[in-house]
Specification:
By secondary structure, this protein is an all-alpha fold. The chain has 3 helices and no strands. The protein starts with a helix and ends with a helix.
Amino acid sequence: MTTVLDHLQSISRDLDKAIDDLKTLELAAENAEAAYRVAKAKAFLSAEGPVQAREHQAVLATQTELIQRGEAAALVRVQVQRVKSLHARIDVGRTVASAERLLAGVVT
């Protein structure tokens, strides 16, 4: 039978991994943002016509990079929520462990 402390240790390991994954996702998101900006700037400079038309042409020419940027940012947001969820689970576990100690008469 697993104890609350066993669960806390498991959640703590999950949190460490989630934070490492977040670092990786943040880096990928930054790279996607940079790739989009560079591709859009190149497309804008090579487009012809008025500024507003060139802007729209650049967006259309870089739609793949724009989508990748959005997806990367979404993955970061999801991972941030996972990290917050794990923190909340740890807080709940600490509360339960404290209550168990209190009920056992081992208050520290």
